[in-house]
């Protein structure tokens, strides 16, 4: 039984691994010659995503490509510590969150997909399910991201992405050039006047960072925003400004988009996974896509038909992705809060955040997508 996966990023490569491991004949079609690419931002994988990687059989490869991040520190713009919690896990979890360049994650997944027996075709764009059917597909997996052509093919009235009133610029700084006192551990999240600034020290002495700039209108070209412009935007936050002044360059710049809930996520023998179905954000996009892959393969392997397997997959995944989408909305609102809300946050968070964070996120981090069944001809 032949599966065509449209999109060779995280969602597509993970789906290819899972489906090939349970016995499907899988071909991935990726529009770009190199879907990993030499340049890009970093991605953090929480413990739920790491469990999915273990099920896919490439956890160790991903851990070796990145580095563990045990703690997450929340700061006010004035340098006041608001919270210090376990990063991407419950405190008792012994598996710490991993941060790595997105290109390295895609590379590790693609290599495992090839080892699992999948075929990957690059430089060939399939414009949705009609093209996939022409390629002889019995099952079509739309893993083509937030701008998914597969989603539009399933439902002509499907929602389109809209500007989220925030844009992202990521880069690397030389830690030895940072003279202002900053935190040298963990994943640091600064609530700034103009959005949020995130930075984390890497083991090699460099600092990885992302400026999440709140703006009512997007810049014409986010890549044209200079390091000097960013330093000026974050001049009222000493830690952020210090990291930006030591920057060696920008690795990624893009505009944030949101998507209204997708009502038709599967039909017949076509299914959407990852950002094509639910761009959840909240630092969970890659982890949720890999969860999708494991659950999709397991439900298809257990079902007596493809439509039945897709229906079971959707019943299992939709409540979780919907709940996470609401969490992301709250996170995004916090990044664009006004001065009164900012002041209240500085007063309240140090007293309540550490105590309630664990309980509030247990549903997210304690999830286990399970294992994959043994390979069988499908």
Helix amount, in percent? Answer: 25-40%
Count of beta strands: 16
Largest beta sheet: what is the strand line-up?
6-5-11-12-13-10-14
Overall structural class, as computed from helix and strand content, comes to alpha/beta
Indicate the CATH architecture of the largest domain.
Answer: 3-Layer(bba) Sandwich
Main sheet record? 7 strands, mixed
Number of helices, where a helix is a run of at least 4 consecutive DSSP H or I residues: 11
* Rg (C-alpha, Å): 21 Å
The CATH topology label of the largest domain is FAD/NAD(P)-binding domain
Overall residue-averaged pLDDT value: 89
Q: Mind telling me the CATH class of the largest domain?
A: Alpha Beta
**Proportion of residues in extended strands:** 25-35%
User: How far do the termini sit from each other?
Assistant: 6 Å
Number of domains: 2
Which parts are unreliable, with pLDDT below 50 for 5 consecutive residues or more?
none
Structural shape: globular
Order of helical and strand elements: EHEEHHEEEEHEHEHEEEEHHEEEHHH
CATH superfamily of the largest domain: FAD/NAD(P)-binding domain
